[in-house]
User: Which sequence fits this backbone?
């Protein structure tokens, strides 16, 4: 079940209807009504996740119980033994399902022996996301940053909440569980904002990202046949595709959660206007980058153990972040490139004497944005290519300016124009408000006729221009 399917729309409508029924005055205590709503959402979340494979839902339930049990033990004893169980057990599960075959195959390749011992198992959708959430909850309880949650239903709903379950944003317990202690439900204010955010994300996914994928797939599958111009356009197109695909999903998650009465943190903030690689990671997949910083980089020692160790920790964090994205060496190399770039930027900031508040000149900032975008797009080649051989063919095709088929998709042009226009609008908005360039949702007033007209036009554009090939969300594989 995906957000861009009729099945989800029917499912979501049923959930909304059930929650609306709880608003009827049944002369039931308020606390009991809230519990009923939590149970409805929890059952709906497991139906949503089990739609792919009910066995995976059992796995998520097991991880939830481990987090629940270990956190209660930690709360009573503050023992590192239970903390270790709460971290190691989810990591072992993640390692078996996502990385076992990868490590076995890599080991056999290094020793020059035939492959053996591979497991034929299904990779549970979104396992990386809810595994990270369960571990961060356990660590937060141990650090005394949040109280141990005594209600298994509330903790289960935090981990399984279906809008963000399979592809994020990665929600920290301190950002969500407190909402479960408030009387949150569907209301008109949340609905009219949430539905617009959802449609905004839907457009990015099914109109821009999915249509662009045709051009990208064609070139990346056989880059040897295409002209260098086509390859460059495919690389640029993929940068637009993955941004619109993943940020589109995040918008739909945030929008659907908002309709239900809950707030999720924003996951993207115009990443391609970043002036350096550090700024990029503050704007791209924000929930992951902050998770890695808080629970991995700091746990490794952060910048507390000397300058050299700081660079090592930074590099290792991005290396592991690359591996988190997929069980392939191309993802590891992608993470390594970003790790090296972050270290180089940190060295440059120190040598140049620029602190974090340094604004730079307009021309210098523009050049920095272009250089950062080129580097990020170059790294996307390894992220997209299914092998180093294909990545090499893509890079050599550009460097050697090879001849071949010229294929420039009109959808790629549309995607580039949409991103540029939104960037210009955001830039004008930032100039008026005298702030940094920030993304924003195009929220209109649905109390007016024109507001309703614009919303229905947006719906019409989504369904009339949508790609019907059925592309899954890119981040579902992670």
Assistant:
């Amino acid at each position: 079940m995906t957000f861009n399917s009729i099945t989800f729309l029917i499912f979501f409508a049923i959930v909304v209807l059930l929650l609306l029924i709880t608003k009827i005055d049944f002369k039931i205590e308020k606390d009991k009504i809230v519990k009923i709503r939590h149970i409805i959402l929890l059952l709906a979340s497991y139906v949503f996740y089990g739609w792919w494979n009910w066995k995976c839902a059992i796995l998520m339930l097991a991880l939830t119980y481990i987090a629940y049990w270990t956190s209660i033990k930690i709360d009573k004893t503050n023992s590192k033994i239970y903390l270790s169980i709460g971290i190691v057990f989810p990591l072992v599960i993640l390692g078996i399902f996502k990385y076992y075959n990868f490590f076995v195959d890599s080991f056999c390749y290094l020793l020059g022996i035939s492959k053996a011992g591979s497991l034929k198992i299904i990779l549970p959708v979104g396992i990386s996301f809810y595994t990270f959430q369960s571990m961060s909850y356990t660590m937060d309880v141990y650090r005394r940053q949040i109280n141990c949650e005594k209600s298994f239903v509330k903790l289960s709903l935090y981990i399984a909440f279906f809008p963000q379950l399979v592809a994020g944003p990665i929600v920290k317990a301190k950002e969500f569980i407190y909402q479960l202690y408030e009387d949150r439900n569907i209301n008109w204010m949340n609905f009219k904002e949430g539905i617009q955010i959802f449609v905004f994300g839907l457009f990015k996914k099914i109109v821009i990202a999915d249509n662009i994928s045709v051009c990208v797939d064609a070139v990346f599958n056989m880059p040897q046949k295409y002209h260098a111009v086509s390859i460059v356009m495919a690389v640029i197109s993929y940068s637009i595709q993955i941004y619109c695909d993943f940020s589109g999903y995040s918008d739909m998650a945030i929008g659907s959660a908002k309709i239900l009465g809950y707030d999720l943190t924003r996951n993207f903030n115009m990443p391609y206007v970043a002036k350096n690689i550090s700024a990029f990671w503050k704007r791209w997949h924000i929930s992951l980058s902050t998770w890695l910083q808080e629970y991995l980089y700091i746990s490794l020692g952060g910048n507390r153990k000397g300058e050299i160790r700081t660079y090592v920790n930074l590099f290792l964090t991005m290396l592991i972040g690359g591996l988190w994205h997929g069980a392939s060496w191309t993802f590891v190399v992608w993470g390594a490139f970003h790790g090296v770039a972050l270290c180089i930027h940190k060295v440059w900031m120190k040598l140049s004497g620029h602190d974090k508040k340094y604004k730079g000149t307009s021309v210098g900032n523009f050049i920095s944005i272009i250089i950062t975008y080129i580097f990020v797009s170059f790294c996307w080649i390894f992220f997209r290519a299914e092998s180093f051989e294909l990545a090499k063919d893509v890079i050599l095709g550009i460097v050697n300016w090879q001849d071949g088929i010229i294929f420039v998709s009109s959808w790629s042009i549309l995607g580039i124009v949409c991103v540029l226009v939104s960037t210009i609008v955001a830039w004008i908005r930032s100039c008026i408000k005298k702030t940094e360039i920030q993304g924003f949702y195009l929220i209109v007033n649905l109390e007016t006729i024109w507001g309703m007209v614009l919303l229905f036009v947006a719906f019409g554009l989504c369904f009339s221009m949508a790609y019907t090939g059925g592309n899954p969300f890119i981040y579902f594989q992670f």
